[in-house]
Amino acid sequence: MPPEAPVIPAEVHEYEREPVPSSAWKGWKSFLGMYAGEHAAGTEFVIGPLFLTAGVSAFDLLVGLFLGNLLAVLSWRYITAAVATDVRLTLYYQLEKICGRRLVTAYNLANGILFCFLAGAMITVSATAVGIPFDMEMPKLTDTMPNGITWIVVVLAIGAVISIIAARGYDTVSKFANIASPWMVLIFLACGVVALKGLGVASFADFWNIFGEGREPFPGQIKYTFWHVVLWSWFCNAAMHIGMSDLSVFRYAKKASSGWTTAAGMYVGHYLAWICACLLYALYIRTGDAQAMLAAGQAPPVAPGPMAYQAVGIAGLICVVVAGWTTANPTIYRAGLAFQAIAPKLSTARVTMIAGAVATVAGLFPAFAMQLLDFVAVYGFILAPVGAIIVFDHYFAGSAGIVQNYAEKAGINFNLAVLLAWGISMAIFYSISAFGGVFLSFLTLPAWLSCGALYLVFSKFLQKKI
Amino acid sequence: MSIIKVISYLCLLAVLLSPILFFADVLTQSQMNIALLGATVVWFATASTWINKEA
């Protein structure tokens, strides 16, 4: 847990249970900074290398990431931002209108906890940088538990600072990201350029040959093809775009076209930064230590702090820490909103501090960061179908002949149609993945569509006349 | 444009150019690292005074 509760603003008004008034709407620049900062993050230092451990080819990585990120941007623009600027409510309040308070409480709890785990992975990444001056032992790819007292102290300190910043509200988060993001992107680029020199790249052909036609995945990893890369990169933020979590962000947007600003996050963070981090790891695995581990049948560790330090020195360490913060901040803020929907009498600042404490505890366990590809796929798969309920209710309620925002209008606390749609689609598609061995990200879209369609069907039969 | 803002942009330029100059064998790695750290410190010191006032 973080140290003593800090002094935080008594009340940060965030329009949690009312539409955001036009006086509080923000221009696209505000979102540009936030998305560029959030997606050029500490976890990119882990995700890039993990693609290499999955044996991707040059074409799969470069073209697959381009296409997957394009699909993600389109999802944000034409689904999330479009609905957000219509309703201007948080995800949690909008869901409450459709699902009823009791059902949405369970969803909020799951959502908030998953966000905290994700933020915890970012704290873990930052800790690999902060721990270097203290000669801290770095976690291995297979580690799940804290590996020493230095690790615990470093994670607690980082978690406390991140939580305090997040507790000060969206404006503070946005300001922090605005300052850090242009510099951070250039440091990512610097890491890539330095790695290219270390890898002896003098032409595009040399660069292409680093990945070539792909290779066997590292021990314990699965092989990624073109479609693995496309669908994973599309749905790694599924909870935020088709899962509609970013309703809470885009409700402040003047226009739905602000959704295009997510391209800054995707192509800078999820393209350039992933590839730069991948190059850093490609350089690392040529070292004697890494080759010895591979020869022994082990996967070399992915430690962002030491990798960035080797490439660009102390500026690289600062980048890893700051990159962790800029992602953890909005993630903890979102988790705080989720918890606030459960306990609306608590201030945003206070629930964000609670979310920060949970994230800090999660950050103590390196498993969330070291198995990030798997965790992110599961997280998107669980949360995304609930977004389909909002989208289908918003666009198709009239044509399907059902009542929009039924729980609010009927005065019920529990909308059974939502639970059945979510539960059945999840159970069917997760079973296909678990028992049929299908990559989970391949099933996120089918689960989303079936959840929305089932919601309309069940609502048709279960809704009573109002 | 204020002098502070010019300094901020020069810092970003330094962060961009340092690794390129290292790649071209104009700078050594330690010179590049010092340039990056210096530009980082000055960027945060100067950008925090103006960047959010424009957003």
The count of domains of chain A is: 1
Overall 3D geometry of chain B?
A: elongated
Radius of gyration of chain A: 22 Å
N-to-C SSE string of chain B, H for helix and E for strand: HHH
Please give the share of residues in helix of chain A: 55-70%
CATH class of chain A, anyone?
Mainly Alpha
Largest interface: A-B, 23 and 26 residues
Domains of chain B, number = 1
Mean pLDDT of chain A: 88
Contiguous uncertain segments of 5+ residues of chain A: 1-11
The count of strands of chain A amounts to 0
CATH fourth-tier homologous superfamily of chain A: Hydantoin permease
Largest sheet of chain A, described in full?
A: none
Number of helices of chain B: 3
Low-confidence stretches of chain B: none
Q: What fraction of residues of chain B sit in β-strands? A: under 5%
Helix content of chain B: over 70%
Oligomeric grouping of the chains: heterodimer
Structural write-up:
Chain B: Keywords: Membrane, Transmembrane, Transmembrane helix. Chain B: The chain crosses the membrane at residues 34-51. Chain A: It comes from Persicitalea jodogahamensis. Chain A: GO terms for molecular function: cytosine transmembrane transporter activity. The complex is a heterodimer of chains A (466) and B (55). By secondary structure, chain A is mainly α. Chain A is 70% helix and 0% strand. Chain A has helices at residues 28-39, 44-53, 58-87, 91-99, 101-130, 149-167, 170-198, 204-211, 226-235, 247-250, 262-284, 288-295, 304-312, 314-342, 348-363, 367-370, 372-400, 406-410, 416-436, 444-462. In chain A, helix 1 runs parallel beside helix 11. The longest helix of chain A is centred in the N-terminal third of the chain and has 30 residues, at 58-87. The termini of chain A are far apart. Residues 1-11 of chain A have low confidence and may be disordered. Chain B has one domain (3-49). In chain B, helix 1 (3-23) runs antiparallel to helix 2 (29-47). The longest helix of chain B has 21 residues, at 3-23. Classes of the chains: A mainly alpha (466), B mainly alpha (55). Chain A binds chain B through residues 29-30, 33, 174-175, 178-179, 182-183, 186-187, 189-190, 193-194, 196-197, 312-316, 318, and chain B through 11-12, 15-16, 18-20, 22-23, 29-30, 32-34, 36-37, 39-40, 43-44, 47-48, 51-52, 54-55.
